[in-house]
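[agent] plan:
  1. take the single chain provided in the ticket
  2. run structure prediction with default settings
  3. attach structure tokens to the ticket
  4. add a short note for the reviewer (M.T.)
[agent] executing step 1
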Amino acid sequence: MYSVSIIGVGKMGGALALAFDDKGFKIKTLIGKTSENAERISLKLQSKPQVSNEITNLDSDIIFITTQDSEIANVAQLLVNSVSKNQFIFHTSGSLSSEILNCLKVRGCEIGSFHPLVSISDSIIGATHFKDSYFCVEGSEKAVNIANTLVTALEGKSFSIETKHKTLYHASAVTACGHFVALFSIAIEMLSKCGLSELDAKQILLPLIKSTLENLSNQTPNEALTGTFARGDIEILNNQIDVISKNLPPQFLQIYLQLGLQSLNINETASQNKIEKMKELIETFLIAKN
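[agent] step 2 finished; step 3 output follows
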């Protein structure tokens, strides 16, 4: 098994340390800005790694940089004089490519990016989320090969994209995950206006979301589309525009209608006449508000 060091023991770094340790990898060093979280994670590892808040000589086979994106280039520079030829260096940013590690490539290291396409909000829980998840890997040929091996060890699935597409890939992930959470918060606020607590609203909406995700697992977006825009129900839309505008911030209605347009764009079920009439209503309203 490979030995691993991790720089940046936050949610992602801690989760990877726990997951790799569980699969038999030797976690040699955990480095964090403060040693508190790294110490907390190290106590849960069979490897009993060294814990530090300074970047020192790291002799592990693989080094993961799991810091915030803004710190990766600086960490790479700090590593220049403490790495050896043929070490594998990965960062876990979704938006940055392996090119940000080029200063280490010059030193003879194999560089790559290793991004688990999964939501990690807690290290301990997150360590269990890698199984069956997808990982986007890119970089040198050797780095990608090792990354694929690591993904297999974590029981995940890997895919690669061209380096130039990394930012667009990340925007897709933010839309599917971060924007989804933001959209769910709007739905909760809408339902709480009906006299329910936010907690009750959340619990009521969650099964609906789960059923939608289940539908998407087996159907295309068009096939999984339900509700007002799937039916092309212009009278209901008129009522919704009226009630949302009276009870919620104006940006909520803008979001509702913009997403409604996209729903209509993928709608292959309702009649084209209904779809066009709904689009005209939405576009007229949006233009008037602008």
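[agent] step 4 note for reviewer: Residues 187 and 205 are 8 Å apart (CA to CA).
[agent] ticket updated
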